[in-house]
C-alpha cells in the first residue's frame, strides 16, 4: 500500500466498505460542550435582566409585537360584506 499525502492542514478521509454479512457499526460522536461566557458577561446579562432589558437569545415580547404583520380591523373575522358583491 502506498501512503498518500494531503494538503497541509487538511485531512483525507478513506472509506472502506464493511465485509459482506458484517453488522454495521454505529458510533456516537460526543458533541463538545458549548463554551461558557466569561464571568464579566454573565454579570452584565444578570444586571440587564434585573433592569428588564432585552437579552440576546431570549424571548422578547416587545420585538414580537413590533415585528408582527399589521392586521386591519375585520380582516380575519366573519364580517358582513359592505358592498354586497361577495369579493
Task: Write up this protein.
The chain has two helices and no strands. The radius of gyration is 30 Å and the shape is flat. It has 87 residues and is mainly alpha-helical.
Overall outline: flat
Percent helix range: 10-25%
The overall average pLDDT, rounded, is 75
- For the report, how would you describe the main beta sheet? none
Question: Helical element count?
Answer: 2
* Beta-strand content bin: under 5%
Distance between the termini: 77 Å
**Uncertain runs:** none
How are helices and strands ordered from N to C? HH
Give Rg in angstroms: 30 Å
Number of strands: 0
What structural category do the secondary elements indicate? mainly alpha
Question: SSE layout and pairings?
Answer:
Blueprint: H1 39-50, H2 61-67
Q: What are the key terms here?
A:
single chain, 87 residues, mainly alpha, flat
Summarize the structure.
The chain is mostly helical and 87 residues long. Helix content is 22%, strand content 0%.
